[in-house]
Amino acid sequence: MADVNKVVLAYSGGLDTSVILKWLQDTYQCEVVTFTADLGQGEEVEPARLKAQAMGVKEIYIDDLREEFVRDFVFPMFRANTVYEGEYLLGTSIARPLIAKRLIEIANETGADAISHGATGKGNDQVRFELGAYALKPGVKVIAPWREWDLLSREKLMDYAEKHAIPIERHGKKKSPYSMDANLLHISYEGGVLENTWTEHEEDMWKWTVSPEKAPDVATYIELTYRKGDIVAIDGVEMSPATVLAELNRIGGLNGIGRLDIVENRYVGMKSRGCYETPGGTIMLRAHRAIESITLDREVAHLKDELMPKYASLIYTGYWWSPERLMLQQMIDASQAHVNGVVRLKLYKGNVMVTGRKSDDSLFDANIATFEEDGGAYNQADAAGFIKLNALRMRISANKGRKLF
User: Fold this and answer.
1) Which three-class secondary structure string do you get for the chain?
2) Catalytic residue positions?
3) Any residues with CB less than 8 A from the CB of 131 and at least 6 apart, and which?
4) What is the pTM of this model?
5) Are the C-beta atoms of 14 and 49 separated by less than 8 Å?
6) CB hemisphere CA count around 149 (13 angstroms)
7) How far apart (Å, rounded) are the C-alpha atoms in residues 225 and 235?
8) Pairing with 305, which of 1, 7, 176, 388 sits 20 to 30 Å away (CA)?
9) Across the chain, what does the average pLDDT equal?
10) Could you tell me the CA-to-CA distances from 149 to 43, 121, 153, 177, 373 in Å, in that order?
11) pLDDT 10s digits, 375-399
């Protein structure tokens, strides 16, 4: 283990990564650089600096990545209307490639020859962090303590912390029974009672959203302005990407929007139950499909829908930095050139309803679509030949006496 001189650790300042910091110092006898990312998780990140300093860390990085996160990761993903397995909006998945990118950047800046993370050997995050790291720096060494040590329970971690005088608060009061992850896009909950798929989630678990039953009795209307597939303004007020998402989280949370309880298929092979709050993302997905409905060509829209599950799987399984994801992104981004305009939404007790959409680039032609006289814009007699040609193969099959089933 002497071949590691310096390692960059993804560090939150919590129990796991504080123990990892000390364990790296003792086990690898190396210098540790800490990196703490502010992705909008809603918690103070500065205390991590004091904890790292107390453990002798000399190079400490605490980075506000909120704008980069939404601009370069969340928004590109939503241009594709990305949903994993029909429900999950990939809140945890999409943050990992940014963390991996920054780990490698810091490793290059500090001359570190390794990176380290606190993901367990059972989950998806180990794959996401490491695939990203290897794509960006092929020769980097990755240290994943959960795959090496025997500290496989919270009590063992606490005992290790006390033995080595690691500054960790041992909470005497009730702690959250859930494993939680948060950023500007979502907050997730796993473990505890959720490990029984028949047990209903507890109401006091939710942090960002009111229950739909307790949401206001009066609907909230908002208007979202799109430019090349991205939201640039809410109710006419221009905002940065991170500010857009934070505001949609606030409005959505007040209206009970974005709660989800699902069982998903992890990349490592097991099924996992998780609950998610994604109020802003839920609004964004509905609104983006609405603006695309009037600005995208039919076949372009259908092709995007066909490719989306593959794109979602690439993000979920950690292939953000792969050539195939980058190729798909170029196609998706090209499709957004005319996705401009305004969408009006009605938010009410957990529901997001589209009530209007308009665009100077709209392909909707009321003169053609009308049920009234169209002044010859569309010749209905043309439909007869269109139908007969599309029925030709079925007519031939029927004439041959082939049974349908």
Assistant:
1) CCCCCEEEEECCCCHHHHHHHHHHHHHHCCEEEEEEEECCCCCCCCHHHHHHHHCCCCCEEEEECHHHHHHHHHHHHHHCCCCECCCECCCCHHHHHHHHHHHHHHHHHHCCCEEECCCCCCCCHHHHHHHHHHHHCCCCEEECHHHCCCCCCHHHHHHHHHHCCCCCCCCCCCCCCCEEEECCCCEEEECHHHHCCCCCCCHHHCCCCCCHHHCCCCCEEEEEEEECCEEEEECCEECCHHHHHHHHHHHHHHCCCCEEEEEEECCCCCEEEEEEECHHHHHHHHHHHHHHHHHCCHHHHHHHHHHHHHHHHHHHCCCCCCHHHHHHHHHHHHHCCCCCEEEEEEEECCEEEEEEEECCCCCCCHHHHCCCCCCCCCCCCHHHHHHHHHHHHHHHHHHCCCCCC
2) 16, 96, 125, 179
3) 100, 318, 319, 321, 322
4) 0.93
5) no
6) 22
7) 8
8) 388
9) 94
10) 29, 11, 11, 24, 76
11) 888 889 999 999 999 999 999 999 9
The pLDDT tens digits for 80-136 are 999 999 999 999 999 999 999 999 999 999 999 999 999 998 889 999 999 999 999
pLDDT of amino acid 42: 85
Tell me the one-letter amino acid at 279: P
Q: Which domains does the chain have, with CATH numbers?
A: 6-76+93-163 (3.40.50.620), 179-296+338-358 (3.90.1260.10)
Q: Which tokens in the block code for residue 114?
A: 């390794």
User: Which residue from 390, 321, 318 is spatially nearest to 136, judged by alpha carbons?
Assistant: 321
Q: Which of 139, 77, 73 is nearest to 108 (CA)?
A: 139
Distant-in-sequence, close-in-space partners of 43: CB < 8 Å, separation ≥ 6: 182
Angle at 114 between CA 112 and CA 118, to 5 degrees: 125
Q: Is the sign of the CA dihedral 346, 182, 245, 250 positive or negative?
A: positive
Contacts of 300 (CB under 8 A, 6+ apart): 335
* Dist. CA 329–CA 333, nearest whole Å: 6
What does residue 63 show for φ and ψ, rounded to 5 degrees? -115, 135
CB proximity list for 150: less than 8 A, separation 6 or greater? 156
One-letter amino acid at 326 equals L
Residue 134 to residue 146: CA distance in whole angstroms: 19
Q: Which of 281, 287, 79 is nearest to 182 (CA)?
A: 281
